[in-house]
Specification:
mainly alpha, 3 helices, 0% strand, elongated
Length: 86
């Protein structure tokens, strides 16, 4: 357990940040799944519109340091290739 006032505050902040970051990561996963499901259903229009929204959320997560930029690039590249293959 944290002893000093500063370390207690840091512990509180860590809990808040963890909750916030978890929500953002979950949002990114949701958008990726929406695009994947649209691709699986063969719905090009839905996949393209979902991809644009997914791209924005993934880039925001990268800027906040929640996911690595190469991981984001890999996700976008693979989904984009699958959309083009439809």
């Amino acid at each position: 357990m944290a002893n000093s006032a500063g370390s207690r505050k840091r512990a509180r902040q860590a809990v808040k940040r963890n909750k916030h970051n978890s929500q953002i990561r979950a949002k990114v996963r949701t958008f990726v799944k929406k695009v994947a499901y649209a691709i699986a259903a063969g719905d090009t229009k839905e996949a393209v519109s979902g991809f644009k929204a997914m791209q924005k959320n993934v880039d925001q997560a990268v800027n906040k340091g929640l996911i690595h930029k190469n991981q984001a690039a890999r996700k976008k590249s693979r989904l984009s290739a699958q959309i083009k293959a439809l």
